[in-house]
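Input chain follows. Return structure tokens only.
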Amino acid sequence: MNPTEKVLLDSNLVAHVKEANNFDFIRFFLAYSVMFNHFSTLTDTDPFWFVSGGFRVKGFFIISGFLVMFSFLRSPDTYVFFRKRVQRIMPAYSLVILLCLILGFFLTTLSHYDFLTSSKPYTYLLTNLLTLNFLCPDLPGVFENNPMHAMNGSLWTIKVELMLYMTVPIIYRLLKKYNKLVCLIIIYVLSFIYSTTCNYLDDTTHNAIYDFLKRQFPGQMMYFCSGIIILQYFPLFRKYMKYIFPVSILLFVFRDILVFRIFEPIALASIIISVAYSFKWLHFFNRMGNFSYGIFLLHFPVIQTFIHFGLDKYSLILTLALTTIICTYLGTLSWKYIEKPCLYKPKKSRQL
């Protein structure tokens, strides 16, 4: 080992991270929050859910930073790491893209011949499988009378998530060689500067491109990095968590004040990870299976289909109830038959 390199993982850190936690509950909460907020947006009704804004997605990025970096620290093999990430993300994602294309074929106002001979379905398939959803978010003649025409507006986060994963081996090597706190602060601040600049340009020019850019990879890095920061100092974080938690809530509440704005990502990360390692009565969610990803992937086209048939005009409550039930059921099926079987399982070593 290079004498300038540092040990980033020890038994104390492993023991703390692997304690019983509530990450499954938090994932469910965030996934349902995304669904409820998209329900309000797509049905053009007043928001009813108390978690609004982009904090739902930011929460996912924070959890990824904490858990994905921990996974890499335990097995710093870049090939295996990316293989596991692709096997976790892409099978269910690819299936949803194909299902949306099939759904569009049956719901389009075009004739089936015109739909199949149009270039757009194939452009949709290719760009979305490549996670470049913004290049072709809709299909010809599908959801034309809905307030939004997109087939699945949730999927923009997948490309950002994959790009964040790509930084993990790079960050790992930086932390091994240089002062880890300095490295993480630099990454955090650069991401904050990018996000703040895009926000300023969006506010002053009202050009939609800056609203798009501020939600992309560089701007989300400070949330991902916040999870990594807490991971690197997690035993210390646990020791003082009861003091950090209320301070983080205050910083988050007053995040709109200019001087506190830079602390919003790390404050949100501290709140989420504090909740993850508190409230033992929430541990029962760990026995339910991790079907939150399926809910996240599937809810948007389900809501769009109900709007297409006018169910929301008949009863918003019925539409919401059916959306919740169907997406929970489909998410469970996705976990059981698509996601879980595709998870990377290393070969068992042969007993000597």
